[in-house]
């Protein structure tokens, strides 16, 4: 997986997307991302990016792209592009659920701000940031928010930093190379005891080990199966996050996790066993499926 991200990084440097607003023009994005997808062996590279951009712009079909080829994407549209292209680079189907995760987290940031007052500057912690799409989308929606994000993949962290520069958000975003272990230790990263986060977001691996080999070929070809494998019942990292978050978060902080809908009951049991949470709620995705859990620290 690392070599794929490195190939992508070289293309970003070459095209200087992090220097010019013109890099957000539809015609330029199609050209640039087609090359990136081809370098990373993403099937149907050109049609993939055209479908992604069409969906972001609300076009009925890709043939309409010719009429907007010089259009410049807004920051919000570009954030959505990052979410979708990140999934395609991982050989995974583009899922609107990730945008749902951002929406839920954004709603909770608004709630915290309403509770704490307008001077409140919330601090977000993301585990497994990939290209940084989730943290950067949240930063763009909340000008007082700060984000700390970690990922075990050095190239992914480099990509996140580049994206933060492109979007003018680097002053409020920090990305570190670090791995969350099953025992709750975070290797390569430490937070001073004086820092407590207000919200934690993560889209962790939640596919049960026994189901990995039966995934659709487009997903199974994803090189890093560790980023998909959630352990025997799919909740290995989810449980680690739930049991250890109280030491990273302040009282009243929120946790938002994307999950497999079959895991809601066991996650509720884990949270109850911890005794550190005032409540847990299950949220549905855009398809009406139980896809997210929200926990609040006592």
The radius of gyration computed from the alpha-carbon positions, rounded to a whole number of angstroms, is: 19 Å
Sheet with most strands: 7 strands, mixed
Going across the major beta sheet, what is the strand order? 3-2-1-6-7-9-8
Number of domains: 2
SSE pattern, N- to C-terminal:
HHHHHEHEHEEEEHHEHEE
CATH fold name of the largest domain, please?
A: Rossmann fold
The parts where pLDDT drops under 50 for at least 5 residues are 1-21
Name the CATH superfamily assignment of the largest domain: Vaccinia Virus protein VP39
CATH architecture of the largest domain: 3-Layer(aba) Sandwich
Domain Methyltransferase small: 115-206
InterPro entries: DNA_methylase_N6_adenine_CS, N5-glutamine_MTase, SAM-dependent_MTases_sf, Small_mtfrase_dom
Keywords: Methyltransferase, Transferase
GO molecular function: nucleic acid binding; S-adenosylmethionine-dependent methyltransferase activity
């Amino acid at each position: 997986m690392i070599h794929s991200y490195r190939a992508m990084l070289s293309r970003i440097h070459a095209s200087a997307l992090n220097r010019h607003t013109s890099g957000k023009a539809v015609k330029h994005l199609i050209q640039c991302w087609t090359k990136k997808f081809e370098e990373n062996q993403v099937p149907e590279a050109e049609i993939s990016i055209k479908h992604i951009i069409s969906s972001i712009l609300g076009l009925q079909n890709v043939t309409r792209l010719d009429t907007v080829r010089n259009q410049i994407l807004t920051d919000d549209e570009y954030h959505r592009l990052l979410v979708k292209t990140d999934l395609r680079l991982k050989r995974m189907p583009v899922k609107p659920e990730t945008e749902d995760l951002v929406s839920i987290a954004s709603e909770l940031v608004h709630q915290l701000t309403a509770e704490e007052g307008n001077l409140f500057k919330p601090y977000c912690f993301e585990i497994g940031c990939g290209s940084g799409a989730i943290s950067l989308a949240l930063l763009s929606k909340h000008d007082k928010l700060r984000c700390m994000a970690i990922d075990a993949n050095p190239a992914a962290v480099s990509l996140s930093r580049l994206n933060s520069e492109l979007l003018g958000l680097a002053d409020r975003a920090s990305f570190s190379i670090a791995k969350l272990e099953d025992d709750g230790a975070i290797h390569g990263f430490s937070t001073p005891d004086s820092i407590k986060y207000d919200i934690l977001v993560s889209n962790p691996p939640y596919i049960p080990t026994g189901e990995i080999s039966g995934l659709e070929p487009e997903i199974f070809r994803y090189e890093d199966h560790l980023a998909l494998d959630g352990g025997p019942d799919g909740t290995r990292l989810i449980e680690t996050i739930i049991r250890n978050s109280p030491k990273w978060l302040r009282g009243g902080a929120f946790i938002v996790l994307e999950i497999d809908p079959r895991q809601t009951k066991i996650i509720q049991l884990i949270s109850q066993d911890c005794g550190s949470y005032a409540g847990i709620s299950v949220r549905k995705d855009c398809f009406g499926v139980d896809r997210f859990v929200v926990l609040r620290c006592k």
